[in-house]
Design goal:
This protein has 1005 residues and is α/β, with parallel strands linked by helices. The protein contains 42 helices and 17 strands. It is 59% helix and 7% strand. The longest helix is centred in the first third of the chain and has 27 residues.
Length: 1005
């Protein structure tokens, strides 16, 4: 009893001080005018009051400590009730203890008795005698309080009419959450952010300050100024206490804060996002306007302006489907780092990220930049959670029915002139009336278009004369505007297009100057190449290499992988100078590093960080450049060279398992491929680009996208006038593997398999290594496929022919590895070798550093099976732990892991039936792999979901988790167990039966 009493007292004090804090917050917010301080647990009397130190828990006082509010806090445990007599007794003590208080509050979390509710209504009566009569009736069954009431004077009854009972039904955790949010809102309005953890820390700190006063420190006085000072503690101090900031965290390539303020535009965005908010319903607004009008800048300005109001701000690029997928993968990696860059198709990725966002306890803002198609974007947008979404788009018709639209117009004259002044007015130059007039004339002619003004300022700054050059510049662009009137896109000002062309012309003229020829020519070629890539995060080294290095020169050099232009005195081309030339004309902007958003990746010591430098380019600039070029330029050479270098980068990232950078490059590869298709251009380099793009999709589980790429590559190759058997062979092999993974039957693969045989025979003498590797991969795929499906006569004949071909050709390291793996697999199946010998063969393979990662996974899986057959459970668990790492982070085919889970699961299930306790840790590791969010990828065959369900049920029984046992047992009873009717499934039938009986017994205990 003593312990429970102590707990009740502690709860009462906690509740009292939280309520005190709430009243102080209301005061700081201006809801209690005239209050200057709080007196906590006051012991002194004020103005002729009755000395009753327990009557008041805290006072809110004004100047001269005149009481504004006197409060008493009464708490009780669950189900306790406050009666009318008890409440009346407390109120009478309060009005006698503070006769001069303006108001009185009895705050309680106890449930009010019906008569206490009636008492609260009576307190609103303004006639003292009427109040006395009503109270006499209410209190007639409480003689003591009825007598107490009759003793009240006229003045005391007037004071009583200023008292109220304030019921509070909130649980302590709800009150704390309410206070945290209220503190965050208060600090946010003062431009001092706060995250969830820091808000909790701040709440505890303020309660401790109240507690100190309650203990008599500072005479119990907490002034409003002191409270505000504590409430607005410097953000850096809070972050230092926590170890980091937990609010205003920006994720993704968020642009820097624009230096031109547009307050009216930001106010409209704020209203669209905050009017009539609904709890946990994501509100969005569409920021619409043409390219170069300032949509992205407005979104970035808003994100920086309100950063203190959010825990996290996410920036997503939605220029293309590939860019959106890459952005969502970065977001997924941030939200769920324990499942770093897990392989998943776009549908799984959508659902996973939406679920993670809806579960976030703090507030978040998402900016989806450059979204063209509303219909395609909507499935990606979160609908539930404590967040808001800003969408920027040039496609105004697609977003015409969106309920909250913010249209971005040209700059006002004042804003436009301010932009010119920011760009051209040096600190040591006074801004004169002449400057003002020249700037006004410039922006008027440029129709107040932000991008046009930036381009003009770049030109004027480059001339060195600044605003003095405005008349000549305007004359130039007027002439260009008239000359190129037909090339102006609808709704864009002619002067914007003219400004772009003038900037390009300046670079072109510089290319004719011997001193700047190399740099300027490369800059011009780079801007042309950039116009066919995605507009954001274009790798600078890739761009320059594609602009100046021919395929032939790269092949002659013998270099592999991404080409990096090294800065050296002997190199006439400087990437930094090319970058400077482009930026000086305001044609491009510095982009976020290619590695941005991948905080959990640790680059090796050999990684060249120059690969991460990127630029971004405005879409209207790309449009104008393409429009000028496509009538006369050598488009096949330009796109083929860009494709050659891009596919080289893709291959490098794929080979290095660098999924993050691979995804960042996919939008550029897709953009190049899309423009080539639009222009009817095909080449071997574009075909290879399609192949590597397909490989990127294949590795991340996007099988439909991968198939489109492989078939596009094949279409280009088949349209060649001169056959390309090597490229065709390298295309058909992964295509066959992909078709099988999509569920194609063996007989559906026959046409492709026959063609693979023909190609292999055709080039066996000239390209033996390519043929051996291709044949080995096909045979490995068929070996796995024929375990599940009996091959027909055509497939069996093809297998025989391919094996015969492989036997007469010299082997390669890959083909030898594949042959060893096939022999080990066969040995595990037919038991012609002892398990310990199979184990040794696996370990020998794993000791070979040349073994590729994808094959290493196969061998680890086979080793786990060999150990399980020997009942070496500790060793089995160790190998499964390695597979678990691949299962949670792998970009590769999950089939070897699925096979290991199946075969080891059978052995562990039988051990469970035999009550072999040593096998239990292996069962737990299997369930860990199965229960991972990507575990569904392990269930590729019809019977595998049922077998995985049985293992999960055994795991639940092992843990004694009754809730999960009940759910899984119900699922097992409802499952189609005829899937286990085959004779060879007798072991799984037995395990399923025993699992059901064991689970039923566990529930009955």
């Amino acid at each position: 009893m003593a312990e429970r009493g102590g707990q009740a007292a502690a709860f009462g004090f906690q509740y009292q001080y939280l309520v005190t804090l709430e009243e102080l917050l209301a005061t700081a917010e201006g809801l209690r005018p005239g209050v200057r301080a709080a007196l906590i647990e006051p012991t002194c009397t004020i103005g002729g009051a009755v000395h009753d130190t327990d009557a008041i828990d805290f006072d809110l006082v004004g100047d001269g400590r005149s009481p504004v509010l006197a409060a008493q806090v009464k708490s009780g445990g669950p189900g306790t009730e406050l009666s009318a007599p008890a409440a009346f007794a407390v109120l009478v003590r309060m009005i006698k203890a503070r006769p001069r208080a303006k108001t009185y509050s009895l705050i309680t979390n106890m449930r009010l008795h019906a008569k206490a509710v009636h008492l609260n209504r009576l307190l609103g009566l303004t006639d003292p005698e009427e109040l006395r009569l009503k109270l006499a009736t209410l209190l007639e069954r409480s003689p003591k309080q009825e007598e107490n009431m009759h003793s009240l004077s006229h003045d005391e009854l007037l004071r009583l009419s200023r008292a109220r009972i304030v019921p509070d039904s909130r649980e302590p955790h709800e009150l704390r959450e309410h206070l945290r949010e209220r503190i965050r809102r208060f600090r946010s309005k003062q431009r001092s952010g706060l995250g969830l953890r820091s808000a909790g820390r701040m709440t505890n700190h303020l309660v401790s300050e109240i507690f100190r006063r309650a203990c008599g420190e500072f005479d119990g006085v907490l002034t409003l100024d002191e409270f505000r000072s504590e409430l607005l503690t410097e953000s850096t101090h809070l972050a230092h206490d926590l170890g980091n900031f937990d609010w205003g965290i920006m994720v993704g390539p968020v642009p820097s804060q624009p230096d031109l303020p547009r307050p009216e535009l930001l106010a409209r965005m704020h209203r669209a996002l905050t009017e009539s908010p609904e709890d946990r319903v994501v509100r969005s607004c569409a920021v619409l306007g043409l390219s170069g009008i300032g949509k992205t800048s407005a979104a970035a300005a808003y994100a920086h302006d309100v950063a203190d109001s959010y825990d996290q701000i996410f920036w997503l690029d939605a220029e293309s489907d590939a860019a959106l997928v890459a952005s969502y993968r970065i977001l997924h990696d941030w939200l769920a780092p324990q499942h770093e860059q897990a392989s998943m198709d776009s549908g799984v990725l959508q659902n996973r990220v939406r679920s993670l966002l809806s579960a976030l306890p703090g507030r978040w803002l998402m900016v989806v930049d450059n979204a063209s198609d509303r219909r395609r974007l909507l499935p990606w947008l979160p609908t539930s959670g404590r967040g808001q979404v800003i969408i920027t788009s040039t496609n105004q018709s697609s977003w015409a029915t969106h309920p909250r639209r913010v249209n971005v117009a040209q700059l006002t004259t004042d804003e436009a002139v301010s932009l010119v002044r920011l760009r051209l007015s040096a600190d040591d130059v006074l801004w004169s009336e002449t400057h003002e007039q020249a700037a006004t004339e410039l922006v008027r002619n440029l129709e107040h278009w932000p991008l046009a003004i930036e381009l003009a300022c770049g030109y004027l700054a480059g001339c060195g004369l600044g605003l003095a050059e405005v008349p000549r510049y305007l004359e130039i662009i007027r002439g260009r505007a008239l000359d190129d009137e037909q090339s102006v896109p609808p709704d864009y000002p002619r002067t914007l297009v003219a400004a772009i062309l003038v900037a390009l012309q300046r670079i072109g003229r510089a290319a004719k100057d011997e001193r700047e020829q190399d740099t300027s020519s490369a800059a011009l070629a780079s801007i042309i190449t950039a116009s066919y890539m995605a507009s954001r995060q274009i790798p600078l080294q890739l761009l320059v290499a594609a602009a100046v290095l021919s395929k032939e020169s790269v092949l002659r050099s013998g270099l592999k992988g991404p080409m990096v232009m090294v800065e050296s005195p002997g190199n006439s081309l400087s990437v930094l100078e090319i970058h400077r030339a482009l930026r000086s004309e305001s044609l491009v902007q510095r982009g976020e590093p290619l590695s941005a958003g991948a905080p959990h990746r640790q680059d090796g010591p050999d990684h060249n960080h120059e690969l991460d430098e990127t630029i971004s380019i405005n879409e209207i600039v790309q449009h104008v450049v393409r429009g000028r070029l496509e009538g006369s330029g050598d488009m096949e050479r330009i796109l083929s060279r860009a494709a050659f270098h891009t596919q080289g980068w893709l291959a490098e990232f794929i080979d290095n398992e660098d999924e993050h950078r691979m995804h960042q490059l996919v939008p550029h590869a897709q953009s190049l491929a899309g423009h080539a298709l639009r222009l009817g251009i095909s080449s071997d380099d574009l075909a290879v680009l399609y192949g590597n793009l397909g490989g990127a999709h294949f590795r991340t589980g996007s099988l439909d996208e991968a198939r489109i790429c492989f078939e596009s590559e094949l279409a280009i190759l088949m349209a060649r006038t001169v056959p390309a058997p090597v490229l065709e062979l390298k295309t058909r092999v992964p295509l066959v593997d992909l078709m099988r993974k999509q569920g194609a039957r063996l007989d559906e693969l026959v046409p492709n398999l026959k063609r693979i045989r023909e190609l292999a025979l055709q080039i066996a003498e000239s390209r033996p290594a390519d043929v051996v590797n291709a044949v080995a991969n096909v045979l490995a795929m068929l070996r796995t496929a024929t375990h599940r499906e009996v091959p027909g006569e055509p497939v069996a004949r093809l297998v025989t022919d391919l094996r015969a071909l492989a036997e007469r050709l010299p082997t390669t390291a890959v083909s030898e590895f594949l042959a060893d793996i096939e022999r080990i697999t066969q040995a595990l199946s037919d038991k012609k070798l002892p398990d310990h010998e199979i184990e040794q063969r696996c370990r020998t393979l794993l000791d070979d550093p040349r073994l590729p990662v994808v094959l290493r996974i196969n061998v680890i899986a086979l080793l786990a099976e060999a150990l399980a057959f020997q009942k070496c459970w500790a060793g089995t668990e160790a190998e499964l732990a390695k597979l678990a790492t691949f299962a949670t982070t792998s970009k590769l085919d999950p089939m070897p892991i699925a096979t290991a889970v199946h075969n080891v699961g059978l052995q562990v299930g039988m051990a469970f039936i035999q009550n072999d306790i040593a096998a239990r840790p292996v069962l737990r590791k299997l369930v860990e792999i199965i229960n991972h969010p990507d575990g569904e990828r392990l269930a590729r065959e019809p019977d595998q979901p049922l077998k995985l369900l049985v293992l999960r049920l055994l795991g639940a029984v092992d843990r004694g988790d009754r809730t999960e046992i009940k759910a899984l047992l119900a699922a097992l009873k409802a499952a189609d167990k005829s899937l286990l009717n085959a004779a060879h499934e007798i072991g799984w039938r037995l395990i399923a039966s025993v699992a059901a009986m064991t689970a039923t017994a566990a529930l009955s205990d």
